[in-house]
Amino acid sequence: MGASISDQLTPEDARWAAEIAAKLETKFAAERDREGSKIPYIAESGRYEEDMAETFPGWWTNGFWPGILWQMFAATGEESYSEPARRIERTTLDGVISAYEKLDHDVGFLWLLSAVADWRLTHNESSRVRGLHVATVLAGRFNSAGRFIRAWNELGREGWAIVDSMMNIPLLFWASEETGDPRFAEIARQHADTMLANVVRPDGSCNHIVCFDPLTGEFQEAPAGQGYAAGSSWSRGQSWGIFGFARAYRHTGDERYLDAAKRVAHYFCSQVALTGGIALIDFRQPAEPKLFDAIASCVAADGLIELAELVPEAERGFYRSWALLILHAVTEKACDFDPGHDGVVQLCSDKYHDGRIHVPIIYADYFLLESILRLQGRAADLW
Ligand code: GLY
After folding, report:
1. pLDDT at residue 264 in the model
2. pTM of the prediction?
3. Is 106 in the active site?
């Protein structure tokens, strides 16, 4: 489906992408040598001090470092990247698979970028089995009354689903393709339909959390999540919506998902136009303090690249030029490419209230790397 973004670039854009890719390769080679199979998350004063493999092995972001390593392996063919990625998959993440009650809907983020990446890139059979195992866990979280996948495990949250899940359901599409069993993809479609009806607002902004009665499936409320307040517009939620619905379209061909991704993308671009490409944490936060989240920009840029590959030719330029504008903004205003420091993207924020603000967080680096490698036609397709 569609035309690869790498075939859509001008020679000048291609040169720029190659320059950024070279800086990222130098940086990630240095981080690989320092980190190996530790799992980094947030850098402090230029260092990843905490090893999440030790402190929080099941944390939802722990697939992004193996994901960076697999993307680097795909781009370079060097086993010095695949070896630590596979060690993480077989030690830390295998420990999490067996801790059943710790598994939630983020099994997609965790295993698509680790075991499923391993299977896709090296055809390692035991990695395929890990992927199918966690896909079964994700499918088992489906609530058939409300037609949604339950997000988290806390008591009282049996009826909660969140927009971020749109990036977890590619695990289900993969499992159906892999096994020939349509049930995984059917659950993914039903969940995407519920998200479409309840998460995406008419103006293209999104709710973060939606709550349903877990017995009847009836919609109850959309409370505040990681953004400013209920009814506001958490930018990273919007970016998950762009990429997630675009991916759902790629997997299903259902035009309603493409239209949703475009609607959310248009809203996102209209908002980052006001801040030069770097997203505020919440597009409806108070004017001061000006709090940014460059993760949202990186995820959205990747989603806009996805759209540029999926839409008809006459529409491609819009998504391509916005992806490039955002990536230029991130790399020029928010990045530290010094290989002596850990963490590339600096202006990352995990949530509006009581969160870590304007720090380097690992998954911005993942989505930046994936976007730049896609511009060069060198990325592995992991979603
Ligand atoms: N998926 C949680 C977050 O985006 O912070």
Report:
1. 99
2. 0.98
3. yes
